[in-house]
Design a protein that fits this description.
The protein is α+β, with helices and mostly antiparallel strands. It has helices at 14-26, 28-33, 67-83, and strands at residues 35-40, 44-49, 91-100, 111-119, 124-131, 141-149, 160-161, 164-165.
Amino acid sequence: MSALPFALPFAIEPEPLALRLAAFHGRPEIVWLGLAGRFEGDGMAVVRFERLTPGHLGGAGTAALNGGMIASGFDAACVLAALGHVDTEVVATLTLQVQYLRRAMASPSLIFRASATKAARSVVFVHAVLEDPSRGSEPLAVAQATLAPVRARSTRPHGEVVGRPAEALSPLPV
């Protein structure tokens, strides 16, 4: 496990933290992406791909993970880390900066680790790394994110998009 610089201990008690983790696993985008997360130690959020499909891969005929999938994994890990520091159940990503350092080959051992470096009432700053312990200790990518607590929940159901259920949206043409 690599340590992240300036990691803050979680400010939320274990019981509400467990409820937030359960809600995280129920989010449609987390399920769709095949991600799973956990809290580790005192201040670390860990996210990994539970399943990888050909849709997770980049082009050029390699078995490397698509950069957008890497960004999505970082976003999920940073959200999970921020949820350990604010008194709301929802946070919004304001900024996400990713630096791709090495090719991330699709592997069940890929791990996103994220920790808050500063948490205030209206904003949380998070640093994160993508690692593959089976390929050494050097990070494959690093990220920084700024997240804000969402104080009022929408009355719109999670699966509804602009007045239409999400499943009613037509897929992109083939």
